[in-house]
Design goal:
161 residues; alpha+beta; Alpha-D-Glucose-1,6-Bisphosphate, Chain A, domain 4; 8-stranded antiparallel beta sheet; 8 strands; 23% helix; globular; ASHA1/2-like_C; Activator of Hsp90 ATPase homologue 1/2-like C-terminal domain-containing protein; START-like_dom_sf
């Protein structure tokens, strides 16, 4: 299982997930750079993702939806802030309505994904920072730890295929 640690810090308003992958940084990075590969691992296995837009450049946007087993769609959006190829990227992440427009009243997080080569592959640290303790608590209650961990744990299998 790639996820090796999950930490929440209500003082810093963060959720941090650390994972180790049995693949070099370049291959893990490509998962996030390529929307067709990202679709295979974004979200829990039973909620496959479809990326409608994925402009992986500074200032670029991504929009997507995850489809539940019952066919219900849940939208999301990203706005990429910085991209340091093969090392890290930062982005704003929020919930979206049926037209994939930002959904008012739902938490928005600032995210930093960092990738580092190790002797056995790649260590990735995924940190999400929320505006308030209430917003952090809301996503925790929605199951973000379980959903994100299930999603991240799919990456090794994708890269091995």
């Amino acid at each position: 299982m790639p996820v090796i640690d999950v930490q929440t810090d209500t003082d810093a308003l963060t959720l941090t997930i650390t994972a180790e992958f049995a693949a070099p940084v370049e291959r893990v990075w490509e998962v996030y750079e390529n929307p067709r590969r990202l679709e295979k691992v974004w979200g829990p296995p039973e909620y496959p993702a479809t990326f409608v837009e994925h402009d992986f450049t500074r200032g670029g946007r991504a929009t997507y939806y995850m489809t539940s087993p019952e066919g219900e769609k849940f939208g999301g959006w990203w706005r990429f802030e910085t991209i340091d190829p093969m090392s890290s990227f930062t982005f704003e992440d929020g919930f979206a309505d049926a037209e994939l427009k930002p959904l008012d009243g739902m938490p928005v997080s600032q995210n930093r994904y960092v990738f580092e080569a190790t002797d056995s592959g790649t260590r990735a640290v995924f940190t999400s920072t929320y505006e308030s303790a209430e917003n952090l608590q809301k996503v925790l209650e929605m199951g973000i730890i379980e959903g994100a961990s299930a999603a991240i744990n799919q990456i090794d299998d994708l890269l091995a295929a």
